[in-house]
Amino acid sequence: MNASCKLFGTLVLSLAGAAPALAADRTVHLPIQPAIAAAQAAGKIDGSVKFYLAGTGPKGKVLEAGVVTNRKTNAFAKKDEEACEWVAQSAVIALHEAAKKAGANAVTNIVSYYRKNEYRSATDYECHAGAVVAGVALRGDLATVK
């Protein structure tokens, strides 16, 4: 075997051994309110759309049910909480934009929906943080509430 083949084989084995470390997937539950507040403070949402996790807030008239947003962000060299709040902001912004487009003033019945697995909480969302990527998926109903 020549030297380049040996080097390639060594590289492949090294990467294969590193794959589990890169694929780390930690489930993190964090309150959604700081992500909403940060998105509003940054001017990314305007406060005209309210967000209600499942089991909280008014029911309202549903204009569009089961809207899903699935966001990812770079988590390299970031603490889980930092990466998760950043990607949660992105998910909230996407729901805000969808609500505005539909003529809704609220997103109700919000649940985490990572890999189509539902997680319900009256205060928290679910984030999956790895060594390289963090992800948040949310599902909610676009509604008009009083």
Short characterization:
By secondary structure, this protein is α+β, with helices and mostly antiparallel strands. It is 36% helix and 37% strand. Strands 1, 2, 3, 4, 5, 6 and 7 form a seven-stranded mixed beta sheet that branches.
Question: What is the topology?
Answer:
Blueprint lengths: L2 H20 L3 E6 L1 H9 L8 E4 L7 E14 L5 H23 L3 E9 L2 E3 L4 E6 L3 E12 L2
Parallel strand pairs: 2-4
Antiparallel strand pairs: 1-6, 3-7, 4-5, 4-7, 6-7
Helix pairs in contact: 2-3
Structural notes for this entry:
A hairpin with a 2-residue loop joins β4 (106-114) and β5 (117-119). The chain is 36% helix and 37% strand. Strands 1, 2, 3, 4, 5, 6 and 7 form a seven-stranded mixed β-sheet that branches. The chain is globular. It has three helices and seven strands, in the order αβαββαββββ. It is of the alpha+beta class and 146 residues long.
